[in-house]
Specification:
By secondary structure, this protein is α+β, with helices and mostly antiparallel strands. The protein has one domain: Thiol Ester Dehydrase, Chain A, CATH 3.10.129. The protein contains two helices and six strands; from the N terminus they run E-E-H-E-E-E-E-H. The protein has a six-stranded antiparallel beta sheet with strand order 1-2-4-5-6-3. The longest helix has 19 residues, at 43-61. The chain is globular and about 45 Å long.
């Protein structure tokens, strides 16, 4: 199973930062067992949403030649639960040292201005073409940023 955890990209600054949205629907299958009768979005999936957002930042910053794959969580704090119906605001700031194959990121998830997760993580940069069809990802990015045409 594959989870696509970024529903919209609001803004980005190439090579620096990106903001997006994850809408949590009651129908998401991971809520059925986490926890029965008390659905809460798993914290690890919130971290994954931030990692996917970092992937989009690296893709657009590299003209879709690279993608970010998370390899380590350096520090993480949880401040509350994310529930069905929540609109999770995602924000990632990235820093890459010149010549390093790793990118370091800090991310925040919040709901209605209340911080839910703060995390520092890092990952490697891989060729996008080795994991996805590049043109498909360009089109998907246009949908996420609402830069597409219906004609």
């Amino acid at each position: 199973m594959r989870y696509l955890l970024v529903d919209r990209i609001l803004e980005y600054r190439s090579g620096e930062r990106i903001r997006g949205i994850k809408n949590v629907a009651m129908s998401e299958d991971f809520l059925e067992f986490h926890f029965p009768g008390n659905p809460i979005m798993p914290g690890v999936l919130l971290i994954e949403a931030l990692a996917q957002l970092a992937g989009w930042l690296e893709a657009v910053s590299s003209d879709f030649s690279r993608w970010f794959l998370i390899t380590a969580v350096k520090k993480c704090n949880f401040y509350g639960f994310v529930l069905p119906g929540d609109r999770v605001e995602l924000e990632v700031a990235a820093k890459q040292d010149e010549g390093s194959p790793l990118m370091r990121c800090s991310g925040i998830c919040s709901v209605e201005g209340r911080k839910k997760v703060k995390v520092d993580f890092e990952g490697e940069l891989v060729p996008l073409s080795s994991i996805e069809n590049v043109e498909d990802q360009r089109r998907f990015f246009k949908i996420l940023t609402r830069e597409f045409s219906l004609s």
